[in-house]
Amino acid sequence: MSYSFRNDNRLPQGRLAVASYVIVGMIGVLLLGFWKLQVIDSDRYTSMAERNRVRSIPVIAPRGRMLDRDGRVLVDNRPSFSVLLLRDDSGLVEKYLPVISDGLGIPMDDLKDQLYNTRNLPKFQPIIIKPEASDADIAYIESHRSDIPVLEMISVSRRRYLPNGFLAHAEGYVGEVSEQQIEASNGKLRPGDFAGKFGLERQYNDLLQGTDGQRRVIVNSVGKEVDHLTTQEAIPGKQIQLTIDYDLQLVAEQSLGARPGAVVALDPRTGEVLAMASHPALDPNDFAVRISNDDWKNLNEDPQKPLLNRAIQAQLAPGSVFKIVTATAMLEDKNPPENFTTFCPGYATFYGRQFKCYIFGKGSHGLAGLHKAILESCDIFFYNVGMRLGIDRLSYYGSKLGLGHKTGIDLPSEEPGLMPSAEWAERVYHRKWYAGETISVAIGQGAVITTPLQLARMIGGIAMGGVFKQPHLLKDAPNVGEERFALSEPTVEKITDAMYGVVNEDGGTARNVRLPGIEVSGKSGTAQVIGYATREKFGKQKKFEDNAWFVGYAPKRNPEIVVAVLVQESGKHGGEAAGPVVRDVIKAYYDKKNKRTPGQLTTENTLKDSGNAAAASKVRPVRMALKPQTGVAAAPTQAGTASPDR
Amino acid sequence: MKDAPGTRDYDWWLLAILATICALGVMEIYSATQGSSLSGMYMRQVRWLVIGFVLMFVLSRLDYHLILDQAPILYLIGLAALIAVLLIGRTHFGAKRWISIPALGELVQVSELVKLIIIIVLARFFGEVRSDELDLRDLIKAGLLVGIPLVLILKQPDLGTALVLMPMLAVGAFLAGLKWQHAAVFSLAGVLLVGAVFYPPVSRRLLKPYQRERITSFLHPENDPKGSGYQLLQSQIAVGSGGFWGKGFRNGSQNQLGYIPVRYSDFIMSAWAEEQGFKGVLLALGLYMALLLRLVQNAQRAKDRAGMFLVMGVAAALGFHVLVNVAMVIGAMPVTGIPLPLMSYGGSATLFVFLAIGLVMNVRLRRFVN
Q: Least enclosed by CB within 10 Å: which of A270, A527, A537, B162?
């Protein structure tokens, strides 16, 4: 042997054999491990692999559009993109967070908050870090597709409303669904989905919503979509047509201007709502993406209460408009008899307390019967009538005419107002009704409160001879409710004559509402926000100014249109402040009916009358980008041809 | 005495098994990387395999006795290389394991070379033990021979390679006539060490943070859905979802969509099991078993003890690689970074296996020569 180390050839054959057995045993054990995974538990792992691989991505169903009565689009949708953050790989997310913050202009803290807030959601569920991607964001994401693997975009459909809060309160708005809505939806809604929150959006959410589809896609381990399996198309929401007339709505919005208040126009023959405005308005477009907490807080805390739909939610003393109830009760009950007269010296004393007529200090109404008392809105006359009728009869007629309960309009959160009675005082305050309260109620002050919609329905219904159609916004609504409260023909005759006189006779409180050739009728109301005594204590601050009402309609009997207008704290008499708005809307209605240019506004008059020129001039004319759906509807050019019956 | 062995003397069965396993590996590397930025990797693997085959034949021509003769020098070279790596090595994946060899133009992982050297050194050492029984003195000497490079490797840190040195020592000692009492004591020590590694207060001092993390996530994969626990889970999902028949070549979703971590390397068995199913696993593990048994057979027919130890050192290293890697793939062991010999992509690892098989061929070619 030429090697420097010792060696020999005795081999441990026994131990080598053992090594063979160990090898066979080792491979056997490994095979058993594979057998367990691949044969025994294979189904479980197959479904886990499937869950890894296949992801369902919702295809958002566009909400149905809203059209006006002529088919013009009031609410539709616009396409948009949301930026998603894929959170499968927390390491990658951590790594790219500063880059994303920089590239999309989202503050780092904001991103971290969002991640923290969603930490309990499943990891495979991406989160929306920017609901509304700008063009720059889209470009950024597209150009960084390969180097930022955790960003993704989905196309979404956003609600688009007309600008400047046009019809905002009736339309309502959408928002991310609440926990309760998710629970009530039987799995149809998921967190982050949008649903109607207010107004028609909420009322007809089930129609408008549609059903989301889903795309089943194959994603790789970093969540990137690599292939696409099946698509279940979204079923778009149904389009709804409203009773709203765009032209009338436009006039209503403009004529009310910047003053807080409301306008409701109804067709009393059908109950169709032709226009509904409430100011100050909100912009529902702000809600279409995701309203910021600050904006929401500001809206909620705004003393002007822009979230309130005053047309159905403002519950205020109706003032002299209520005198129509008192007058109806008097004529129907014949108590006092119809030829009853009072002398108005400007005040009167009942139950030891002095009640003033609004004319107190400015003159006297002199001797007045029912017709003159309505025309000139003499309080003294109605104090006396109220005293003779008593609260039970007033309350009976008020309720029958629709006060104190909801009209049943197809909008959520309508308020019922209040028609007080002795029973009410007992039930709510556990006290007796004071006879003195009846005196106030008889002229629409005291505990009685109503919404503009209730007054429109009531006045329209009386002029219809006691037929009250359920107000509604959905055109072709099935089962429109109807209440009948048979009023005798002489009663209707006398009251409608008087309301015609309010506008058209000398001495009427709303002569400025007159329109040539049209039987405009109505009743004004000037309601105290607080009692006169309190006001004197605080001085004449704007806060305590009177609310102005005017409820007008045309023609005198069986009207086609009734318009209730509330101008809050205007400091003006109802006929002065609210009357011109009624006149503008009724004029627009007839102009359109007679194929004249819609909306030939008497703007100068409106501004002069309302004495609110400064505020009103700030309101830009509402210019809408509306696509006429039918040829007839817009017809803006047939100007100037007066109809022959004028 | 030194007449050149003929081609008939090569172990053609062994080569056939080897080639088949390599083919499976190349196929799966192709499947796992096609269409990705890594496509073409399978061709690089083929290149490594070709280099490996050539080196294997070259090494088999050189009489292993000559190699064993140089064992002490090789050992010193190995230690020097390990120290050099610690001082000047390039840092890859958080560990210094690589050293650049200008001639090859590629990075070579020094610890792979050291594995080979330790096999040679142990064969030389155990071959010189004359008695049938291994006494404590020799056992401790052998332990020190392995212990010094082991500590250096742990310093890199490379737990996987360090672990591979242990079965080489164990198998060598066993065949050298390890007494049952010593075996019992060392088994106990081994159990205690493993226990210590899994016992946090101790492991905190012994292991690097990433190593501890691997162990805790192996024990509690649910706490670590994205770390190595996630890797093990995804590997199990891949294997399990493959079922008996497999999803088909290039059809495994776990593999193709990248859910399996390093699917072309350490977890290649996972990708293979997903696409080829249990039947494919049976084939692959059957081939590995045949390979290992063939090595043992060659050891049994070796001309002398030194040759036997050389072959069994190779068998111990390869067997351990297969065991630890495959057990990891099915989630039965933590992630250690030990590749599957011949199938996993990798230059140094592939060259190591071929050089090791070259030693085995060397022993076989000289079994009748004396």
A: A537
